[in-house]
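hey so u asked for the seq, here:
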Amino acid sequence: MKLAQILLLLGAIVFIGIGIVFLFAPVQWARVVEIELPTPISRTDLRATYGGFDLGFGVFLALCAFRREWIRPGLAAMGIALAGFAGGRTYGILLDGCPTMLMPSLAILEASGSILAFLVLRKTSKER
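ran it, structure tokens below
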């Protein structure tokens, strides 16, 4: 199995895992990042954005890992998505501050994953 496939599968596992936990236990997992979900609408919206989107994106990444012609688009999508998370999180930290290391740690993981996806995409492009 190639590095690109391994990276896509790793991303798929992470996104699918996040999606599942937020679909089935949104209140408990939202508390990890101090989000309160006092109404049915708030719980449904969190299930959709953190649960449904992450689950769907994870399935997409898994499909990309096993379809040769989808590997490069999958790496690009993963790199862009993780860069978006890291950028948004970093902007929030700069704007609002951060009393714990949770948000900076996640931003570093997301930025690292994004960089890795783009490096593997670049390597994969040169192999063609």
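The chain has a mean pLDDT of 96. The CA atoms of residues 79 and 114 lie 4 Å apart.
lmk if thats what u needed
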